[in-house]
Design brief:
By secondary structure, the chain is of the alpha+beta class. The chain is built from seven helices and three strands. It has a single domain, classed as 2-Layer Sandwich (PX Domain), CATH 3.30.1520. A hairpin with a 7-residue loop joins strand 1 and strand 2. The longest helix is centred in the middle third of the chain and has 20 residues. It holds the Pfam family PX.
Length: 165
């Protein structure tokens, strides 16, 4: 009789949470969001990570994924909506949900998952130019090193701990 082989299902949970207004009250204020990732997937270098990213960086990421994915459709981002009716908090919450849905769809797509820019976006705090340099081999670290370095520095966990009441 054939033995059933149990293959653990690969699970990736990605959450966009804790929107924070940076430089509040100034002309260059923006909101950034905490991206918390927990996975048992072999596709990811770090099994848990936590970074902060702003909308502009998501826009960059989507553009890059689109460029490299060929015919694979890349999920939409929530709109930029300049004429938003309602409170800022409401807008931020809607955007947060939209960004989370975007990432949930992206991490389920094998083609998009093979893009190392996505991994650096989700698992390191490198800036967009630094991600570009790293992917092109011009950074001081490889993609894997950059992710492991960030994971070891515990930044992700420190933020996680601080936000607990």
């Amino acid at each position: 009789r054939a033995q059933a082989v149990f293959v653990p299902q690969e699970l990736t949970t990605v959450r966009v949470q804790d929107p924070r207004v940076q430089n509040e009250g100034s002309w260059n204020s923006y909101v950034d969001y905490k991206i918390f990732l927990h996975t048992n997937s072999k596709a990811f270098t770090a099994k848990t990570s936590c970074v902060r990213r702003r909308y502009r960086e998501f826009v960059w990421l989507r553009r890059q994924l689109q460029k490299n994915a060929g015919l694979v459709p890349v999920p939409e981002l929530p709109g930029k909506s300049t004429f938003f009716v309602g409170s800022t908090d409401e807008f931020i919450e809607k955007r947060r949900q939209g960004l989370q849905q975007f990432l949930e769809k992206v991490v389920q797509n094998v083609v998009l998952l093979s893009d190392s820019r996505l991994h650096l976006f989700l698992q390191s705090q490198l800036s967009v130019p630094e991600i570009e340099a790293c992917v092109q081999g011009q950074g001081s670290q490889t993609v894997t090193e950059a992710i492991l370095h960030y994971a070891m520095s515990n930044c992700g966990w420190v933020q996680e701990e601080e936000s607990r009441p």
